[in-house]
């Protein structure tokens, strides 16, 4: 084995030891997602379609303490409008806020609605009420759950 081969082997061994012992750059703090109403589904106003998902996701970012977002989405083969009201109850203070969003479910990989820059810290209850408007009237879909902001 020549000097060059030995140097390459020693370098590869040093890199492998560094990786296996966990010597690496510090990781970035990850955004935390918490599903709310995860098993909540309703009829699409097109009936023969993908069911309307009534849940949402609470997103918190450790780099922005006290701030959170709520995202919701739905998929559909057809076009229709959904009116969604999201109510947030902050348990420690009793403060309640309600937000309205109008959106269209689609097959695109996009959030159906977003509510950003909400302010709270600690446990919250999120209630999502969606009314899908299309050719067949369907009852409102109401889903709720808790998360930690």
Describe what you observe in this structure.
Keywords: Signal. This is Secreted protein. Residues 1-29 form the signal peptide. With 149 residues, the chain is mainly beta. It has a single domain (30-148), classed as Immunoglobulin-like. 12% of the residues lie in helices and 44% in strands. Strands 1-4-5-8 form a 4-stranded antiparallel β-sheet, with no helix packed on it. A 4-stranded antiparallel β-sheet has the order 7-6-9-10, with no helix packed on it. It is globular, with a radius of gyration of 23 Å.
CATH fold type: Immunoglobulin-like
CATH architecture descriptor: Sandwich
Number of E strands: 10
> Considering DSSP H and I runs of 4 or more, what fraction of the residues is helical?
10-25%
Tally the helices: what do you get? 1
Number of domains as seen in the coordinates: 1
Tell me, briefly, the overall form: globular
What is Rg? 23 Å
Task: Set down the secondary structure blueprint.
Elements: H1 3-20, E1 32-36, E2 41-42, E3 52-53, E4 56-60, E5 67-72, E6 81-90, E7 95-103, E8 113-119, E9 123-133, E10 141-148
Antiparallel strand pairs: 1-4, 2-3, 4-5, 5-8, 6-7, 6-9, 9-10
Protein name: Secreted protein
Keywords: Signal
Signal peptide: 1-29
